[in-house]
Amino acid sequence: MHQLDILPLTREAFRPFGDVIEMEASAPLTINQGFALRFNDLAHVDVAAEDGATNVSLFLGTPRPVPIEIKIMERHPLGSQLFFPLQDRPWLVLVAEDVHDPRSYRAFRAGGRQGVNYARNVWHHPLLVLDPESRFLIVDRKGPGNNLEEVWLPPDRIFQLMP
């Protein structure tokens, strides 16, 4: 069974798949009479296709058994999908340029202060957390149309992640 290396999550490495959301490397604006810093324009939220609207939700994630078997990938053809952790806990991000080409898969270890915004049509694995009761803020699309495509990998192409 194939095992994929897990790389640190950086803006440069993740650029083909969407945005890395983090305060580091962003220039803040001082607001609220100097009592707050605002970090603007961290992600391109893309939800307007076919009369879509913004959906803000919370996820409570549970770790999968280790080693993590990668059996399914998904993408959203009508909008982006943003995940941001609400606790300072590392988590995993798995993406692919072509779900049918094992060489195109990339795995990243995100820090607990890093989120991602999967661009429209980017293949990714559903949420992969390492700790019980991991909370995330999600910004994605709601509205008409089918915004979820899933592909179950054939048994000979299932692979593992070892966090």
Write the layout of secondary structure elements.
Blueprint: E1 6-8, H1 11-14, E2 18-21, E3 29-31, E4 36-38, E5 53-61, E6 68-70, E7 72-75, E8 81-85, E9 91-96, E10 105-110, E11 115-118, E12 123-124, E13 128-129, E14 134-142, E15 149-152, E16 159-161
Parallel strand pairs: 1-10
Antiparallel strand pairs: 2-11, 3-4, 5-14, 6-16, 7-15, 8-11, 8-14, 9-10, 9-12, 9-13
Describe the structure.
By secondary structure, the chain is mostly beta strands. It contains 1 helix and 16 strands. The strands form 5 sheets. Strands 1, 9, 10, 12 and 13 form a 5-stranded mixed sheet that branches. Strand 9 (91-96) and strand 10 (105-110) form a beta hairpin. It is globular. The model has no long low-confidence stretch (mean pLDDT 95).
Give the helix/strand class: mainly beta
Give the overall shape.
Answer: globular
Summarize the helix and strand pattern as letters.
EHEEEEEEEEEEEEEEE
Which percent range describes the beta-strand content? 35-45%
Query: What are the low-pLDDT stretches, counting only 5+ consecutive residues below 50?
Result: none
Please outline the major beta sheet. Answer: 5 strands, mixed
Instruction: Give the overall average pLDDT.
Output: 95
Number of strands: 16
From the alpha-carbon coordinates, what is the Rg to the nearest angstrom? Answer: 16 Å
Terminal-residue CA separation: 16 Å
Discrete helix count:
1
- Helix content range: under 10%
